[in-house]
Amino acid sequence: MNTSIPTPPTTTPVEPVNAGFPDPALIVSYATVLRYIRHRLNTLLHGQLKPWAQQHKFNYARLIEIKKLEEETQAVLLQRLMTHFQFPTELLRIIVHQSRRHFFLFTSPDSLTRFKAELNLFDNPPFDAPAPPTTPTSSPN
Fold it and tell me: Residue 49 and residue 58: Cα distance in Å, rounded?
């Protein structure tokens, strides 16, 4: 009688599952996205926001609210604007300290890096630096 032990079929190792929670490194707060959107909207000159809103099918009154309000009431509109500005995000609602807060999940690390670079440019414009001191020129006389 042959009593050999059957060998189990080879299987690929199973990776641990993250249970669907997004990568925290790709999450940005509502306040950060709001600051970026405000910078972008403020780049439009006086009188250009309304035609821009109509052209891109955004509600002009809601854009004005974004420029003024601090409450987290325009999360979906901010997400649409982020997509329009080439930053596709996923909107997250997470309960923090017993209150619902909105966050934005970027689709890739590259997109987040580009977003942070643009926001840094708005926050710290290199062209706003003071001019270097002029050196007095000596006259040949």
Answer: 10
Distance in angstroms (rounded) separating the CA atoms of residues 119 and 115: 6
Q: Identify the helix (H) or strand (E) that includes residue 91.
A: strand 89-96
Helix-strand-coil split of the chain, %, nearest 5: 45, 15, 45
Q: What's the token pair of residue 96? A: 């923090």
Contact 138, 125 (CB under 8 A): no
**CA dihedral for 86, 92, 97, 100, sign (positive or negative):** positive
- The pTM for the full model equals 0.72
- When computed from its CA atoms, the radius of gyration of the chain, rounded to whole angstroms, is 26
Nearest to 49 by CA among 68, 33, 64: 64
Question: Nearest-5° angle of CA 75, CA 78, CA 84?
Answer: 150
Task: Determine the Cα–Cα distance for residues 35 and 119; give it in Å rounded to an integer.
Answer: 8
Residue 112's CB: how many other CB atoms inside 10 A? 20
**pLDDT tens digits, 61-114:** 889 888 887 777 788 999 999 999 999 999 998 878 888 889 999 999 999 999
